[in-house]
Amino acid sequence: MRIGFNSLHFTMDIDSAGLLDSAAFILSPNCDERPQGEIIGLLVIHYISLPPGQFSGDDVIQFFTNRLDCDFHPAYKSLQGVKVSAHFFIRRDGAVIQFVPCEKRAWHAGISTWQGRERCNDFSIGIELEGNGTVPFTDAQYTALISLTECLCARYPIQHIAGHSDIAPGRKSDPGPCFDWKRYTSGLEVCRTQD
């Protein structure tokens, strides 16, 4: 999806360091510098829940900050040594946590390609929604995601929005069938054109 602005109505703001004023900030070590001169042009939507299918708790925070006890749950064995982050995490109640400044490269996309370009982490911002792909996302999450998207698009020259499944087809399925793309995109104060 390619996007361009008609008008903006949001209450969030991002400073010159790439920090969102309305988010709790918990720094993840799983980030690095973007390639010099790289332009942020892609927004990637994900979902995550830890333990799988369970919401609330702090395990996602622990995972993104390399403090997850991988002996706590059988599903965590495969996460041992994995270093992942996202720029933003939107909880079920709509609360936004930021883990990586937007100016830096978060490690959220993995092996990925968008419109012939590899290494999507180089030029994207990753947003994780607390979910598992089988339970609908909440009204509060859509409200926060729409506001965050408008804020990001006002600050950066983002031209495309994709799901993780779009940039890593066959490997990833998020944000999954329960994510309502129509609700999300129709809530944006943007003029959308298909590429």
What's the layout of helices and strands?
Elements: E1 2-5, E2 24-25, E3 31-33, E4 42-48, H1 59-64, E5 88-90, E6 96-98, E7 104-106, E8 113-114, E9 117-118, E10 124-130, H2 139-155, E11 160-163, H3 164-167, H4 181-187, E12 190-193
Parallel strand pairs: 2-6, 4-10, 4-11, 5-10
Antiparallel strand pairs: 1-12, 3-7, 5-6, 8-9
Give structural attributes:
disordered N terminus; about 200 residues; alpha/beta; about 25% strand; Lysozyme-like; 6-stranded mixed beta sheet; two-stranded antiparallel ribbon
Short account of what is shown:
The protein has 195 residues and is of the alpha/beta class.
Description:
By secondary structure, this protein is of the alpha/beta class. The protein has one domain: Lysozyme-like, CATH 3.40.80. It contains 4 helices and 12 strands; from the N terminus they run ββββαββββββαβααβ. The protein has helices at 59-64, 139-155, 164-167, 181-187; strands at 2-5, 24-25, 31-33, 42-48, 88-90, 96-98, 104-106, 113-114, 117-118, 124-130, 160-163, 190-193. Strand 5 (88-90) and strand 6 (96-98) form a beta hairpin.
